[in-house]
Amino acid sequence: MIQKDMYAQPTPLQHAPAPAPELELTRSQMVQAVGVSCLGWAFDLFDLFIILYVAPVLAHVFFDSSRQMLSLAAVYGAFTATLIMRPVGGYFFGRYSDRHGRKRTLVTAAVGVGVSTALMGLLPTYQSIGVAAPLAFLFLRLVQGVFMGGMVAATHTLGTESIGPGRRGLASGIISGGGSGIGKLFASLVFVLVSTLIPAPLFAAWGWRLMFFSGLASSLLGLFVFTRLQESPLWLSLAAKKGKTAGTVVPRETLRAGYKGMILACVLLTLTGGGLSYLTSGYLPTFLKIVNHLPETQIGLIMSISGICVIVSSVLSGALTDYIGRRRGMLLYGAVSLVSLPLLYLVLRQAHDFGVIAACTIALSGIGTFCYAPLLIVLNERFPTEIRATGTAISWNIGFAIGGSLPSVVSLMARQVEAVPVTLAISVAVVSLIYLMTALLTRETRGAM
């Protein structure tokens, strides 16, 4: 009964027209659509993950630093605040994208993300203005979250709608996992550059601001690239059938009636798949700092290599689902994560050799993206074109809002630095198990879009 309620295909949309013939793109336009979607998602996560590379510094800059783990948890709480607002942005920008197109949404959201990130670098510190500093920081994180939710509505539909059915798993891996890896790689390279050029005392004093200022550069680059992009052929086809190029109206009752269970299933998948990414790539910069006591330059180097590994592993894991199916792929990735991730964290806890630390970190980052890579296409294949951006954005952003809170939960549960490795090992095991159980209840979606 659970499987039927949560995963059964809903009844056809009474307000939606029959699917229109697809407008074909050239091969170069397909590559461009997938590449730009990947780049847009990379810019999104670059701005998001900057905070993770400077979390220990921000714990002293914006919060009362008398209790290390509590102030660190507060930083992750600000990170989580961004994720909490993403469903709001996903809803409004998703409806906008379904009515006015993916391209216009992408341009608007990208600029908003970059500007709000850059403004964080201008904020006064806790030592200067007291409690007003964390409040201002939190406000900008909330604004950033709205625009990031909008990025999902565009990047997570445009690329997969622009490529043939036999390569949509590959596109999912490139956009979601590959874009994630590129974003993290950009963030780590900026971190390496800034921490190398600026001595540690000055980095703690003002060097961290440069990390946030780099968000504006990513927006300007994105604005240049995104305005030259072709619109989604599936959306154009639907709009043409309705006799207009934009303004198609999606009834609000559409998502409420018939798609609630489906959205819940998609939220569970994104919560657990995204949670594993945050508990590996997301937490590892802090882990290497407070547990392994590595300097910033070594952390940046390791995370840069890990970012490359994330790109490769996500593309391969997404592409594999084109051959073995989405459901079978998710079951495989969940089982691998359940066994390997806890063991790797326990080994990393005892590691002192730089090579062993680097190997464990790279493995954790690569495996941590397995469950995450195929999620984009699984969500896309569950919703028709007229509500795909809305359904995907709401499901993705709610799941990641909850999954992104897991680093804060781990920090609070651990209380002391010494307890962090075991707490992480238990957490990734539990999340992997939930992902595996959810995948077992999921029906196959390959070819459904």
Structure commentary:
By secondary structure, this protein is mainly alpha-helical. It has a single domain (28-240, 258-440), classed as Up-down Bundle (Growth Hormone, Chain: A). It has 20 helices and no strands. The protein has helices at 2-7, 27-53, 55-61, 68-100, 102-120, 126-129, 132-161, 168-197, 200-226, 233-241, 253-256, 260-282, 284-290, 296-324, 326-350, 354-368, 375-380, 388-403, 406-414, 420-440. Helix 12 packs antiparallel against helix 20 (420-440) and helix 15 packs antiparallel against helix 20 (420-440). The chain is globular, with a radius of gyration of 21 Å. It starts with a helix and ends in a 9-residue tail after the last helix.
Structural class: mainly alpha
Q: What is the percent of helical residues?
A: over 70%
Continuous helix count: 20
- Report, as a whole number of angstroms, the end-to-end distance: 25 Å
Keywords:
449 residues, mainly alpha, Growth Hormone, Chain: A, 20 helices
Question: Can you lay out the helices and strands and say which pair or pack?
Answer:
Layout: H1 2-7, H2 27-53, H3 55-61, H4 68-100, H5 102-120, H6 126-129, H7 132-161, H8 168-197, H9 200-226, H10 233-241, H11 253-256, H12 260-282, H13 284-290, H14 296-324, H15 326-350, H16 354-368, H17 375-380, H18 388-403, H19 406-414, H20 420-440
Helix pairs in contact: 2-5, 2-7, 2-8, 2-9, 3-4, 4-5, 4-7, 4-18, 4-19, 5-7, 5-9, 7-8, 7-18, 8-9, 8-14, 12-16, 12-18, 12-20, 13-14, 14-15, 14-16, 15-16, 15-20, 19-20
